Amino acid sequence: MMLLVMIRFSTQKQFYSQNSLSKSLIFILVSISALITVLASCGLQDSEPLPVITTLTVPYTFTDQAGSQVNQSLFSDKIYVADFFFTSCPTICPIMKSQMLRVYEAFEDNDNVILLSHTIDPEHDTVEVLKDYAEKLGILSHRWHMVTGPKDHIYDTAKRYMLAAMEDKQAPGGFIHSGSFSLVDRRGQIRGYYKGTEKEDVSKLIKDIRRLLDEKQ
Questions:
Q1: Which of 72, 108, 137, 145 is the most buried (most CB within 10 A)?
Q2: Which is more confidently placed, 87 or 8?
Q3: Other beta carbons within 10 Å of 195
Q4: In terms of Cα–Cα distance, which of 71, 81, 82, 83 is closest to 113?
C-alpha cells in the first residue's frame, strides 16, 4: 500500500517574521507534522489497520492540574490523544479544546483512553492556572491531564511528536503551535494526526480510537 505523506504547517504560520530564517527552518522541520494519516481520509478501509507512523519515547515527567506526576509509564497499555496549547491562546486553542472535549465525553467512562494536553507557556500556566482552566471546561476526571513542566522539556516533547511549538512575539499570544491531535496506541506508537480545529477530523479521531480499542494486542 502506497503511503501519502502530507506536510501540515501550523494554522498560525503566517505570523512568522520574514527576517527570521532560522526560526522558519525550525518551524518547517518540527511541523512536518507528521507524515500524516496515510490515506486516512482518501481510501483507507475500516478493515485495514491504522498506519504506524513512529514509536514515541518521552523521557520527561510533567505535573498535571491536580499536582500529580505524569510520565510515559502512566500511558502504558493505554490509548491516548496528545496536543499542545496554552491557556491564554486567543486563536485556535479554544476551538481545539472544544473539540478535545468531544473526545473526552465520548470516552469519559473508558479507563483505556486518556487525553494529554501540554502547555507551551509553563511560566504562566502553573498547576493552579491549569486546574482552573480544566474546571471551567468541566474536566474533573483523571482521564484528561493538562500538564506543565520545564519549557525545554515541553518543546522537545513537541518535536518527538513531530508537532510545532515555540515562542514568537509576533504571533497572537506570543506563541506558535500545531493545531493537530496525535493518536497514540497501547504500544506507544503514533497512529494518526487529526486537525483539532475541524469537527469532521475529530469525528474521525473518535472513530479511530474505537478501532484501536478493538485492535488485537
A1: 145
A2: 87
A3: 21
A4: 81
Nearest CA among 131, 116, 109, 129 for reference residue 84: 116
Cell numbers representing residue 28 in the block: 518547517
Q: What digits encode the pLDDT tens for the residues 35-60?
A: 454 444 444 556 689 999 999 999 99
Question: Which 3 state secondary structure label does DSSP give 204?
Answer: helix
Residues constituting the chain: 217
C-alpha cell recorded at residue 122 = 509553563
Half-sphere exposure at residue 205, Cβ-oriented, CA atoms within 13 angstroms: 33
- Domains of the chain plus CATH, in order, are 13-214 (3.40.30.10)
Q: Please say whether the beta carbons of 198 and 98 come within 8 A.
A: no
How far apart are alpha carbons 35 and 32 in whole angstroms?
7
CB contact at 8 A, 150 and 66: no
Q: Where are the beta strands (DSSP E) in 149-202?
A: 165-167, 175-177, 180-184, 189-195
Query: Do the beta carbons of residue 157 and residue 149 sit within 8 Å?
Result: no
Report the distance separating Cα 182 and Cα 190, nearest Å.
7
